[in-house]
């Protein structure tokens, strides 16, 4: 794993954006794996700036998001679909028919999961996947468990994840308890991965991710087995290393 320690959130976002720009310039029809949460927002801002300056175009790219809450309609203010519209998709030229996010309201969620992976494969697999990390070490919504879930699947969210994400909802009781998430194999099949972490509350998860133990109890630790991961970590998130 290539570990880059940077000063702060802004530098993390800029570095990540440069890797994305390089990917797009090198392969305009890249398949991008995208993430939600506070962490990648700065990356999206930088990419939008590069797009507005005419440096890059997403016209030929395809995007697959990691996850979605089960039970939230697309238009729900806290759905990840809505997050991506507001923070990225409506601000760049990535064609709407190539913006993929799993549906949290599909009637047959097992079929939705199966088809999501199939769709990723049919587009040639993910070239570059961006990941944040949960305080409990989750990636996407792969929560700590006794086993890794390989494929896109429905997951029961951890109490800690529900608490962490409650800040976006009016009340903690409004936070969905289930999500649909790419699995560990889906993520690990990406050709390259960028993991971003900022803030001291991520310190413990980063320390465990890099500790050497590869365990589903700290899902991000599996990234140690991937041949091309760049972890961009700010000083606060790296404070326990
Ligand atoms: C969320 C998402 C993850 C994200 C993580 C951290 O619940 N499912 O993809 O990486 O938790 O979020 P944040 O970046 O807001 O700290």
Terminal Cα separation, in Å? 15 Å
Q: How many domains comprise the coordinates?
A: 1
Oligomer: single chain
Output the number of helix runs: 7
Rg for CA atoms: 17 Å
- Residue stretches low in confidence (pLDDT < 50, at least 5 long) are none
What form results from the Cα inertia axes? globular
| Number of strand segments | 10
**Helix-strand category:** alpha/beta
Largest beta sheet: what is the strand line-up?
1-10-9-6-2-3-5
Domain Glucosamine/galactosamine-6-phosphate isomerase: 11-224
Enzyme class: hydrolase
Pathway: Amino-sugar metabolism; N-acetylneuraminate degradation; D-fructose 6-phosphate from N-acetylneuraminate: step 5/5
Keywords: Carbohydrate metabolism, Hydrolase
General description of the model:
The protein is an alpha/beta fold. The chain has a single domain, classed as Rossmann fold (3-Layer(aba) Sandwich), CATH 3.40.50. It contains seven helices and ten strands. It has a seven-stranded parallel β-sheet, with helices on one face. A three-stranded antiparallel β-sheet has the order 4-8-7. Helix 7 links the parallel strand 9 and strand 10 (229-234). The longest helix is centred in the N-terminal third of the chain and has 18 residues, at 9-26. It is globular. The mean pLDDT is 97. 2-amino-2-deoxy-6-O-phosphono-alpha-D-glucopyranose (GLP) is lined by residues 35-39, 66-67, 132-134, 140-141, 161, 165.
């Amino acid at each position: 794993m290539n570990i880059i320690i940077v000063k702060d959130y802004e530098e993390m976002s800029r570095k990540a954006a440069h890797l994305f720009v390089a990917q797009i310039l090198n392969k305009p029809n890249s398949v991008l794996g995208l993430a939600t949460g506070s962490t990648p927002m700065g990356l999206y801002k930088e990419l939008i700036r590069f797009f507005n300056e005419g440096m890059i175009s997403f016209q030929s790219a395809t995007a697959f998001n990691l996850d979605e809450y089960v039970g939230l309609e697309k238009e729900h203010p806290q759905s990840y679909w809505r997050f991506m519209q507001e923070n990225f998709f409506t601000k760049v030229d990535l064609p709407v028919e190539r913006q993929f996010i799993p549906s949290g309201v599909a009637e047959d969620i097992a079929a939705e999961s199966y088809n999501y992976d199939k769709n990723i494969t049919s587009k040639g697999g993910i070239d570059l996947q961006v990941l944040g990390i949960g305080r409990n070490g989750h990636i996407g919504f792969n929560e700590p468990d006794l086993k890794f879930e390989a494929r896109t699947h429905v997951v029961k969210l951890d109490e800690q994840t529900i608490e962490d994400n409650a800040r976006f909802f009016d009340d903690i009781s409004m936070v969905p308890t289930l999500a649909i998430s790419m699995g560990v194999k889906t993520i690990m099949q990406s050709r390259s991965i960028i993991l971003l972490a900022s803030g001291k509350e991520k310190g413990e998860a980063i320390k465990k991710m890099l500790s050497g133990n590869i365990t589903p109890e700290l899902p991000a630790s599996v990234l140690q087995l991937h041949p091309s991961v760049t972890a961009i970590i700010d000083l606060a998130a790296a404070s326990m290393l």
